[in-house]
Amino acid sequence: MNSSQKTRLSNEPGFFYGWYIVAASWVMLFLVSAVGVGIFFKPILEEFGWDRATLSAVHTFALLLFAIAIPFLGRFIDRFGPKVMLFVSLSTQTLSSAVNGLATGIWHIFTGRFLYEIKALQGSQVLINRWFVKKRGRAQGIAATGLPIGALALSPLSQYLILTWGWRETMFFWAVVTFVILLPLTLLIRNSPEERGSLPDGEPIDRATRARPKVDASLAEITGVSGHTLAEAARSGSFWLISAAHLICGIGCGFMMTHIVIFATDFGYSEMIGASLLSVQGGLNLVGVLLTGHLSDRYARSRVLALTHVIRSLSFFVAVGFILLSGSPLWMLYLSMALFGFGWFTTSPLTSGLVADLFGDLRMGTIIGVTMSCHTVGMALGAYAGGITFELTGSYYSFFLVQGILELFAASLAFAIKRKKKY
What we know:
Layout: H1 3-11, H2 18-32, H3 37-48, H4 52-80, H5 82-101, H6 106-117, H7 121-131, H8 136-144, H9 146-164, H10 167-187, H11 208-211, H12 219-223, H13 230-233, H14 237-266, H15 271-296, H16 301-324, H17 330-343, H18 347-359, H19 364-393, H20 397-415
């Protein structure tokens, strides 16, 4: 096929391959929830006889190591492309479940948690940002629903399999499923729309100068910096506001994902009730990522991010009321998880979209990696702070109260990000 024929084909309306990229990313995030930390926290404690602070510390150190690695993984993406990173993630997700299933000591659990964190999120977000500009918020939002739907559907399934087979056998099962499903999907990934003869959002190549939004041209006006390297981005106040808000977000996520199931059992509720909380979280996050994704294509993403943190703060304050009422009524706990669920994974696509809007493509993987590193440090702090708070006080009350206040502070940080609507 000659170049003129390819050009004519690229101009013909039809299916935009970017939506396959979104669908494949969705599946990758969907399967992550099958081996969520909160579901396996209690059975691992019971088998090894550790206390909550010890196991929380294991997860904390694994997350801190991952936080160090994330910017380098971002640089890896910038150099070799997100597709190669997705193959790495496929390998680590499979190995994580296998290592956990074979674990005989604390180092195996540490290694399994570290490998688990090297998931498809970073690579898929860079990939979607490359394939979409005008519809970036919508595409990121749709892909992001994979995580909450996974929590909604797979958390109860994994809990059932743990009760039926045992936690080790459940880990082995998901290792096989992950590899078999994700390998063919990853093989069909393409790094950029140019590889399929189009521009982002399906715009044809020969309309490049008219159709493609000029992110670079507005960068100085939006951020006050002149380039897109990490060093240049770090001179922007917006970069630090995004990173600080994501750090606070991570603290809440690290706590919830590690402790919420066992928190429910502290008040006499069953493990299945605890797992159902993750399902509620996933169900409401489905609404959150779709709604905020749509809104962020119409309004400033920073404002939508601020709203998300306000809603998250309410979830922690409701949990405080639940504790003060001695764990009753149960609907308050579900309400808390519903509010947290709305803003749980919602912040991630909003943050990656902001990075792409503000700093462009040149070092997108690296800059997203740094913001994700801040989030991961927060998760490490949240996971450990929850465990040590319980060991010292016998309750999670203080953590919920402080985190509610921090979420409001994160909302103010997000609101302070100054940028203009581009299109």
